[in-house]
Design a protein that fits this description.
Blueprint lengths: L4 E3 L2 E2 L7 H10 L3 H19 L5 E3 L11 E6 L6 H7 L4 E2 L9 H14 L7
Helix pairs in contact: 3-4
């Protein structure tokens, strides 16, 4: 069986018009078109690593959010934590929602590395 998973500890740019899109625009100083393009890159990166693959799921304190979405950290077959990989490659930002904070410190370090290296979202 398959089910969509909300990746814990991260947030990617919005692709569709929404209140989140408007927040992303305000916070980043980028245009809607830029946000949308970055969101498409993040989605493509995610699909290329996860679509059709068996993965391991690790749960934190909560297994579902208020919308009923499954919340997890996703482990690839080679032992890579995907949530960390997408941050390191710069296609996501840290979004910590207590009480699900298991990897908050390491996630922040990954984001800082991506930003310092100018990867993904951090390319100007």
């Amino acid at each position: 069986a398959s089910e969509r998973v909300r990746l814990l500890g991260i947030d990617t740019p919005e692709v569709h018009a929404s209140t989140k899109m408007e927040r992303d625009v305000r916070r980043s100083g980028r245009s809607r078109e830029e946000i949308r393009a970055l969101g498409r890159l993040a989605a493509s990166f995610t699909r290329s690593h996860l679509d059709g693959r068996a993965v391991g799921l690790e749960f934190d304190v909560q297994t579902r959010d208020v919308y009923g979405r499954l919340l997890a950290y996703v482990w690839l077959g080679d032992g890579t934590l995907f949530n960390m990989l997408i941050l390191k490659e710069g296609y996501a930002q840290v979004l910590t929602v207590p009480p699900n904070v298991r990897y908050a410190d390491v996630f922040l370090a990954c984001q800082q590395e991506a930003r310092a290296q100018g990867r993904g979202l951090w390319i100007r």
